[in-house]
Design a protein that fits this description.
Blueprint lengths: L3 E9 L3 E6 L2 E6 L11 E11 L2 E7 L2 H11 L6 H9 L3 H9 L3 H4 L7 H11 L6 H4 L7 H12 L4 H10 L8 H14 L1
Parallel strand pairs: 3-5
Antiparallel strand pairs: 1-2, 1-4, 2-3, 4-5
GO cellular component, one term: cytoplasm
GO molecular function: ATP binding; four-way junction DNA binding; four-way junction helicase activity
Subcellular location: Cytoplasm
Length: 191
């Protein structure tokens, strides 16, 4: 319903901030209220959650944060409070990396996230939070790497899986395609 609100921060509490715009104060739950300053002019990206007994606004400084919050809400077992607690850690790159690497230990650090929820997060979100350009193989890939990439995809590996392994091998130099494929397969098995 709302995309963002522009206004002035008029109140900061441990759980939320109040942003005033045109004489109306909006109570907005944010991951870290103390990252804001009193009387600061802000633009907050808003997600409105409507429940039977409440209409709650959740706010984020960046559109990407809002998108990650929305994605977390799609995971079975994660509600708005849990998603906000995950966002409060402030390490969104770490979260995305943990999902990509299927790092359950990292994910269970978050409050309310046990092993089953972490597994569900990986199942539901793996590959969905990465920007599209990171998924593709580097443009400057050598002909050997490009041929190996095509061969791995022909063997049934997804573009995302191949790109992740090729990213790990970016500093290595291969003179033949077979050596590149062998190294990539070893890395895939180690996961």
């Amino acid at each position: 319903m709302y995309e963002y609100i522009k206004g002035t921060v008029t109140m900061i509490t441990p759980g939320y901030i109040v942003v005033e715009t045109q004489g109306i104060g909006y109570k907005i739950l944010v991951p870290n209220p103390y990252s804001f300053h009193q009387e600061e002019a802000v633009q907050i990206y808003i997600e409105m959650i409507v429940r039977e007994d409440s209409h709650t606004l959740y706010g984020f400084l960046q559109k990407e944060e809002k998108e990650i919050f929305q994605a977390l809400l799609q995971v079975s077992g994660i509600g708005p409070k849990s998603a906000l607690a995950i966002m409060a850690f402030g390490d969104l790159n770490g979260l995305v990396a943990a999902l990509e690497e299927e790092n359950i230990t990292y994910l269970t650090r978050f409050p309310g996230v046990g092993k089953k929820t972490a597994q569900q997060m990986i199942l539901d979100l793996n590959g969905k939070l990465l920007p599209k350009e990171e998924v593709k193989a580097p443009v400057s890939a050598s002909p050997v790497v490009e041929e190996a990439t095509s061969a791995l995809q022909a063997l049934g590996y997804s573009e995302k899986e191949v790109a992740r392994v090729m990213k790990k091998m970016k500093d290595e130099t291969f003179t033949d395609v077979q050596a590149c494929i062998s190294q990539a397969l070893r890395l895939m098995v180690e996961r």
